[in-house]
Amino acid sequence: MSDTSVLIDLERGSLLLAGDGALWALATSEGVEHHGVLWVLDRMEETGVLTQARLLQGLTAIAGHPRCRLPKDEVKKRLPAYRRAEKSD
């Protein structure tokens, strides 16, 4: 199933999780709510689903992957915050 067909198959009111820039642009033009990995991590942090240590471990692994395309400035904001929060636990 291609990325575009996933977008077409979404019911209105659904949420699209994707990291592909072209798919994001298409979702935006179609008025489909869309988010990526950083949004998911933010929700996990807000709800306490994962500890700061696990968030740090996960984002470090993702950001260290050679094909990672996450915005570096956003990653740089989160990693120190996760480290600080982990130390205060």
**Helix run count:** 5
Distance from first to last alpha carbon: 43 Å
From the spread of the alpha carbons, the general shape counts as elongated
- Cα gyration radius (Å): 15 Å
Number of domains: 2
Oligomer: single chain
Low-confidence stretches: none
Widest sheet: strand order? Answer: 1-2
- Strand percentage lies at 5-15%
How many β-strand stretches? 2
* Overall pLDDT metric: 86
List the helices and strands and how they pair.
Elements lengths: L2 H7 L5 E3 L3 H10 L2 E3 L1 H11 L4 H13 L7 H17 L1
Parallel strand pairs: 1-2
Give an overview in words.
By secondary structure, this protein is mostly helical. The chain has two domains: 3-35, no CATH class; 37-88, no CATH class. Helix content is 65%, strand content 7%. The protein is built from five helices and two strands; from the N terminus they run αβαβααα. The chain has helices at residues 3-9, 21-30, 37-47, 52-64, 72-88, and strands at residues 15-17, 33-35. Strands 1-2 form a two-stranded parallel sheet. Strand 1, helix 2 (21-30) and strand 2 (33-35) form a beta-alpha-beta unit. The longest helix has 17 residues, at 72-88. It is elongated, with a radius of gyration of 15 Å.
